[in-house]
Amino acid sequence: MEKRQQLYAGKAKSVYYTDDPQRMILHFRDDTSAFDGERMESLARKGMVNNKFNAFIMQTLEAAGIPTHFDGLFSDTECVVKKLEMIPVECVVRNIAAGSLVRRLGVEEGIELNPPTFELFLKNDAQHDPMINESLAESFGWATPEQLAEMKALTFKVNDVLKALFADGGLLLVDYKLEFGLFDGQIVLGDEFSPDGCRLWDAKTREKLDKDRFRQGLGGVIEAYEEVGRRIGVDFG
């Protein structure tokens, strides 16, 4: 496969065309951002760690019957993915209260949520990814009711698979966000799953092992990502 011109560069990833019109290359950079890009930093090895972490998770989900855009690794920092028509709605599941939920509702961090909560957010950097609902998504044409129902079902299936995977590694899956798109008319999991887009705590100590280490200035960001990966079986090579 031949890598061609860049299509898009986000805060931490870049997307490239290939010689296959149905495939793209996703490049994980060492860049790290927080607070809507107000804080930016380059962390050595981050691109490689997130690329291989994401590959492991996507393959795990595929094995569980969840369709993803992941096709395979292209290099240490790149993977080949299906070209999706992205749906501009993020699906967020929370198993434990943390982050914006704590700030928004004034609840205590660490409360277990039973059942887990499900929220929708519009992918819009200029508006800081505002929270929305199914009615707004349908009215503005961001997603159909059928698409939203399938996205919700897949998001909770991901929760079942990954909560068990991380629990086996002595970890708590606190919360996470997912993005979906269409490939040949099918809803498919897109973007990435890495410690950049979820919260992971040590099950015994509740030590934070995710991007909150960067947000909160705790240090050891990549070391924490690698620790999580090793616990669940990721081979960083």
How would you summarize what this structure contains?
With 237 residues, this protein is α+β, with helices and mostly antiparallel strands. The chain has six helices and 13 strands.
Describe the model.
Pathway: Purine metabolism; IMP biosynthesis via de novo pathway; 5-amino-1-(5-phospho-D-ribosyl)imidazole-4-carboxamide from 5-amino-1-(5-phospho-D-ribosyl)imidazole-4-carboxylate: step 1/2. Residues 6-231 form the SAICAR synthetase/ADE2 N-terminal domain. Keywords: ATP-binding, Ligase, Nucleotide-binding, Purine biosynthesis. The chain has 237 residues and is α+β, with helices and mostly antiparallel strands. It has two domains: 3-82, Phosphorylase Kinase, domain 1 (2-Layer Sandwich); 85-219, ATP-grasp fold, B domain (D-amino Acid Aminotransferase, Chain A, domain 1). The protein is built from six helices and 13 strands. Strand 1 and strand 2 (13-18) form a beta hairpin.
Ends apart, CA distance between termini: 23 Å
> Would you report the number of β strands?
13
Q: Give the count of helical stretches.
A: 6
Estimated radius of gyration: 17 Å
Query: What share of the residues lie within helices?
Result: 25-40%
Contiguous low-pLDDT stretches (5 residues minimum) are none
At the first level of CATH, the class of the largest domain is Alpha Beta
Helix-strand string: EEEEEHEEEHEEHHEEEHH
SS-based structural class? alpha+beta
- What's the main sheet like? 6 strands, antiparallel
CATH topology of the largest domain: D-amino Acid Aminotransferase, Chain A, domain 1
The CATH homologous superfamily name of the largest domain equals ATP-grasp fold, B domain
- Indicate the proportion of strand residues: 35-45%
